[in-house]
Amino acid sequence: MRRLIRNLCWGLALLLSPALCWLVRRLLAALAPRVVIRGRGRGLDGRKLVALTLDDGPSGAGSLELLALLRGLDVPATLFLIGGHLSRGGEGFVAQALAEGHQIGNHMADDSTSARLPPEAFLDQLRRTAAALRRAAAPRTLTLRWFRPGRGWFHGAMLKTLHAEGYRLVLGSVFPFDTSHPPLWFLRRFLLANVHPGAILVLHDRPDTIAATLATLRTVVPELRRRGYRFVTLDDLIDERMDADRLGPDQVRCPQTV
User: Fold this and answer.
1) What's this model's pTM, rounded to 2 decimal places?
2) Which residues contact 245 (CB under 8 A, 6 or more apart)?
3) What residue segments make up the domains of the chain, in order of their start?
């Protein structure tokens, strides 16, 4: 009976999810224009774009399995890593992720609410985490551009600090509540029901979520490709010049409207 009730609750959440995702894309984007919620819908080649982001890693052996899966699927991702979790990935994890075409984002030193930190403590933790990420990336050079706050909360003072440090705060437009441990069918259907051109997908690389993340990606990525989506990093999703540089002058087309 408990399982039936749980599935019914998740089913109701799935039915309501399109309205919720629409509110995130429209309302929050309007209220916080300096926060990245989604990106451009199509590349210069006319294909629909989507970015995969993964929070809270590394988780341990599961993170290495994640890199192997992304390599097999040929999917670049943006990994929002926590400074205090870097030892879980083992030596060379960050450098390997960069070498395989992934981006690294700053997700602070621990998994707590960043917005509760006093301004001085926030800046200190932001910089310490950046330094830890750069050390972990050696011998590769790491440029940090993207920041995601712990627990997703932010405020105006945080945005000012991030701007001064050269970051942009990014949330996302499709978050299937994977940290609440829904059933796999919910994760898959939520992502497929709510994906849209320019979507930023949010999943988690934590010890308690990585198995579900891997299983979800194995089925969702091929289906999204079948629907005509191309996976890109946040840089490519937000900065049109990245796409132009990759395609070359003879391949660039006028972007289509979404």
Assistant:
1) 0.90
2) none
3) 2-247
